[in-house]
């Protein structure tokens, strides 16, 4: 029986222009975090009180430039080799 914690990874895919903005904070001392900012839409003239910023933590975050081979080597291959 494997005694290991669940690991959670994120892969950022390209977004449609203007839908969401994101930032990745990979401080070596902390768990990497991904912040997604969804701008308020003021075009309709209504007040939008929804939260604008969402922050999530992951073991590792792969940015838009990561290819499929990099994802496999870092996530799937270690699991398959156990």
UniProtKB/TrEMBL annotation:
It comes from the Eukaryota. InterPro entries: Kinesin_motor_dom, Kinesin_motor_dom_sf, P-loop_NTPase. Keywords: ATP-binding, Nucleotide-binding. GO terms for biological process: microtubule-based movement. Transmembrane segments: none annotated. One of its GO terms (molecular function) is microtubule motor activity. Residues 5-82 form the Kinesin motor domain. Belongs to the TRAFAC class myosin-kinesin ATPase superfamily. Kinesin family. This is Kinesin family member 6.
């Amino acid at each position: 029986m494997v005694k290991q914690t669940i690991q959670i990874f994120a892969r950022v895919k390209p977004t449609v222009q203007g839908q969401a903005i994101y930032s990745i904070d990979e401080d070596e001392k902390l768990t990497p975090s991904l912040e997604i900012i969804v701008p308020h839409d003021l075009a309709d003239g209504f007040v939008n009180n929804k939260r604008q910023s969402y922050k999530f933590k992951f073991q590792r975050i792969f940015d838009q430039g990561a290819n499929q081979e990099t994802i496999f080597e870092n996530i799937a291959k270690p699991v398959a080799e156990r």
